[in-house]
Every structure is written in C-alpha cells, then in structure tokens.
Amino acid sequence: MNAARDEILARVRAALADVPEPERPADVPVARQYATGADAPAGVQETVSLFVERLADYGASVRTVSPAQTGTEVAKTLASWGAEQVLVPRRFPAPWSAHLPAAAVLGDEGPLSADDLDAVDAVVTTAAAAIAVTGTLVLDGGPGQGRRAATLVPDRHLCVLRAEQVVASVPEALSRLDPLGPLTFVSGPSATSDIELERVAGVHGPRTLEVLVVR
C-alpha cells in the first residue's frame, strides 16, 4: 500500500516539476470544524426513540424488547418468516438464540459459499453500534456479526442490539469503531431506484430487515 502511494505521489511531483511558480495554486486553509455531536436528545430513551423512528422510515421493522423477552422474540420473528434454516454467527449471545430449534441453526465456522448463503432463509446478528440521526446499524465483524457476506446474501436479516449501543451521531459511532475493521453500514432493507426511478428491494442485501433493541 505505501509503495503504491509513494509511486503515485512521485509521478504527481514529476508532472508538476515544470509548472511555473505563479501558476501554482496557493495552499488554501480549509476549516475543519466538524460536528462531534448531533441535534438529538442526550438521554438513552430519547436517542433510542429517534433511532427507531428513523430506521422505520427506511422500511425496517423495529421493536424494543426487555432482556427477558429477547430470546422468545428472536424465535417468534424467525418463525413468522417461516425460516427453516437460520445462520447464527459465532459468539452470538446464547440466551438470545436459546429458543431456536437446533435443527434450524447453521453456524458460520466452516467455509460457506455464496450458494450456501443463498439457501439460508435468514441471518440473525448483533451489531457493533447504531446511529440514531441516520437510522443506521454498523457491523464490524465482531462477536455475533459474522463476515460481511453473511448479511448481504440471505434475504432476511434480524439484528439484535442493546440500547446502550445506540448513539446520537456518526462521529460518536466512529469513536467506538476500529477504522481499519470491515465496517458495514446498514440503513434499512436493501433497495435502489437507479433504473427508471423505480424502487427495487433486495439489490445489495436483504429485502427484509428487522431490529430488536434490548432495553
């Protein structure tokens, strides 16, 4: 990476070597007063409420559940989808998957091809963080999240996260994340309107996204 960068910069410098000094642009200072917060309520309850509202605007189903309800609600959601085979990534909290039939659970310990993932009815994951003002989930491949393809190929995605993982703004979320990690930002079910402005679901990810916020 560094060698390629150095080669590119060297070529740029060589190309600019014969540019007369009067023709060179001045080094214009750029203001970097980036926002580090958000115009969102500071309380956890208010922040979660904003997140639920924004994510629902994208067409996702979002519900808040108690810790005692979580395992049951995970099982009920997957049953309502008729999911017979569910991908559960490594280190997904056992209490949250305890009500799933063992025969329905597929782990991601072994190599799974795109065809294997396409045959899965749904994937259930955790998240690294969530952003209230944009209604966004952030996955970084951590415990219970699996690799990126696991949340892009299956048609349905159920995400479970704790209320304290929801922050108000993008800068707050980034401060909790490793910028070198495989970050995936999810704002609602996958959709595009690129062709004739007609909205099509399930283009770059699941058609159905449901989120359970545990608080």
TrEMBL record:
SUPFAM superfamilies in alphabetical order: NagB/RpiA/CoA transferase-like (SSF100950)
Stored Pfam families: LUD_dom (PF02589)
UniProt cross-references to Gene3D superfamilies, sorted A to Z: NagB/RpiA/CoA transferase-like
InterPro entries (alphabetical): FTHF_cligase-like_sf, LUD_dom, NagB/RpiA_transferase-like
Signal peptide as annotated in the record: none
Domain annotation LUD: ranges: 117-214
Protein name in the entry: LUD domain-containing protein
